[in-house]
């Protein structure tokens, strides 16, 4: 309920078909991530485990994004995912679901292919980057003040990606038992950008259809 | 003349009989044993009176450099030849090189290790090569030679050359012990044992024993290498299952555990930026 002003504000400039007043996908994400963290042992069967995936447990490529190593790990990712989801979901829950699914597959696949040294992986930040980039891209299309916000957000994402690619970490990578996988964020950004392009193309098609 | 001839013949027969009997005794007394060993316990704990220092929790910095060396022997006369040691070390090194968490293998020449050097010597090696983990290869080989019934043919002299009446038995154990030097803790070990039996004539006995010795080491090393693979897998499982027993630290950003993480500060910054921006852009 407290998110209503935000969702209403963002949905106002450019409402789309299928837009929902109730951000059910975002709230479902918050609930799932919190539950997986809260129920002991649940994450063990869901996280990206290279050996287990080799043995046929392919769901881990996707479900790894719902698992976090600690509440502190979850809090940063969840805060951004929740706000970005509430920003973009008024444009359509199905579009957001599509972005989440595509990003989950792509980020997990990127870790599998490009990070052979990573045996275990968990965390929703790659998917979150996809949602941020998608949301900012949509806001850019709206123009006006939203374009400035989109510019600032995209600049922040770009700065983060460049910094991480050059080995910058805001924490000791060995302190809490895992290293941040920069390529997962890169893959998320690519999916977010592609989703913006796809939604633009589909929007044009939809606009032409009635004519 | 005839009597003198008979006496000479009798003396010759007596001398031959004496020689034969003494030879026989010499032959039946022919049990022998050879022993060569390089003990890792004697090397690491040379003075049993010293109290064993307390072991710490090993901090494994991955990917790791691993030193590889043969345990030195006090008396060099019984030591395995350097070329043989190098061959075995290379085979062990090949197995370690296939591991993705091993960055490099440093084969340490035996001249750098001191017999009965203990952990003080290992600390020197650690400083010199920059390795926290050292794999020590030790061995213990015993060769026994007994004479079988066929050795009766040695009486014929020709039998000494053609009848293999010497029964050799060669028992070999080769062992790789992987030590974490700072914590003085053994991470794991992989032994390999073999038994070679053979026959030899007295004339080629030493040659055959050398051949048996090499065959024994070959077979034991084969088994040790196979066992090493098993132990490495078991060790990886132990490290995963017992984080309190082993602390793993990744040093190159490509560690086993990876995560997607905004972190509380950057995540908070993005959340504020997006929420604030959305609110600001919605104002009329």
Description of the structure:
The complex is a heterodimer of chains A (211) and B (284). Helices cover 65% and strands 3% of the residues of chain A. Chain A has 211 residues and is mainly alpha-helical. Chain A has a two-stranded antiparallel ribbon. Mean pLDDT of chain B is 78; it is low at 16-29. Chain B has one domain: Double Stranded RNA Binding Domain (2-Layer Sandwich). At the A-B interface, helix 1, helix 5, strand 2, helix 7 and helix 8 of A face strand 8, strand 9 and helix 7 of B. Strand 2 (120-122) of chain A pairs parallel with strand 9 of chain B.
Please give the most extensive interface between any two protein chains, plus how many residues each contributes: A-B, 62 and 35 residues
Number of separate helices of chain B: 7
By helix and strand content of chain A, what is the structural category?
mainly alpha
**SSE string of chain A, helix = H, strand = E?**
HHEHHHHEHHEH
Distinctive features:
heterodimer; A: 211 residues; mainly alpha; two-stranded antiparallel ribbon; 3% strand; globular; B: 284 residues; alpha/beta; Double Stranded RNA Binding Domain; six-stranded mixed beta sheet; two-stranded parallel ribbon; 7 helices; 9 strands
Topology:
The complex is a heterodimer of chains A (211) and B (284).
Chain A: H1 4-11, H2 24-38, E1 48-49, H3 50-54, H4 60-63, H5 71-88, H6 93-114, E2 120-122, H7 125-142, H8 145-165, E3 179-180, H9 182-208
Antiparallel strand pairs in A: 1-2
Chain B: H1 2-28, E1 32-38, H2 40-44, E2 59-62, E3 64-70, H3 82-97, E4 102-107, H4 118-129, E5 133-147, H5 158-162, E6 166-180, E7 185-200, H6 205-241, E8 247-250, E9 257-259, H7 264-282
Parallel strand pairs in B: 2-8, 3-4, 3-5
Antiparallel strand pairs in B: 1-5, 5-6, 6-7
Helix pairs in contact in B: 3-6
Summarize this entry quickly.
The complex is a heterodimer of chains A (211) and B (284). Helix content of chain A is 65%, strand content 3%.
